[in-house]
Amino acid sequence: MSSRRSRQLSSGTSMRDDQIIQLVSKLQQLLPGTRIQRSNKASASKVLQETCTYVRSLHREIDDLSDRLSQLLSTIDADSPEASIIRSLIM
Amino acid sequence: MLNFNSIFVLLTSKFIHLLLNIPFSNTSQALMNLCQQNLNSKETIMHNSCQQLKKEFIKKWIHGLQICCSSNTKMNILERKKKIKLSADIALASAKNSTTSWSKAIISEAKNDEQNAILVENLSPESKFIRAHQKVSCHKRITSKKILKRSYGVYRKMKKMEPRRCGSSLASCIAKRLVKKRTRVLKRLVPGGEFMDEFSVIKEALDYILSLKVQVDVMKNLVNATTILS
Question: Any idea what the Cα angle at residue B158 is, between residues B157 and B163, rounded to 5°?
């Protein structure tokens, strides 16, 4: 009984490993890389690490952009015609 | 091929009088129509879906900005920035229309805060059903995770008693451990990731990265357009 259970678990994990490898290769295509050729043998852990840093950098970029946008919106000159465009669009 | 970036700047500079005279709903419609006309017909499916997401996101985000920035004109910069970021996140999540887990997680998290209620109500009307479902399924997942952990502890003890395999699998063991470690970090980064298993986290991360790219693109365009106009 226990051997069957361990056999099931090991076969289940090997199938899952293949799926993980597939997903990881897809992830690799999304990441911005300095190398032109992506080596197929790039380890999964490296790709995951790059994914984490990329997500963090995207979060930071969104933070910066919303910062800039709020500064721009607060410093709009009230009377210019351009300000009224922005105001009609956003505010 | 005109890409979306150039279209946005082109539109805001060329059609200034159009934007001044037309009320909000027609403005966004006019923008969307013009974008549609300029899109290249030979685009790939992924590019099309990205453009679709961009359109949805822009519509909802501008709607959200109108809601939160018009109510109180004397906000300080930090408050305004938080509102802008929040409205962008919620708009992106609702543009996904509950197709992915991370978007549902963002919306349910925003709903838990009472201050954001108006924003969420207006941006994602279909999210009314998400909250109850999310709470129940989270609770179920937590209890089932506890059961799983207990049984996994037993399994580990059983495995330790088995004789060690040969050295070639040692490297694979280390690799697997590294992958698990990194997946744990990724779980913290993707919204709603703590409740998912490894496989789903990576799948969600794929979609999340694409959507984040869309969000960054649109925000960059808006910032550029605002800088040009001010």
Answer: 110
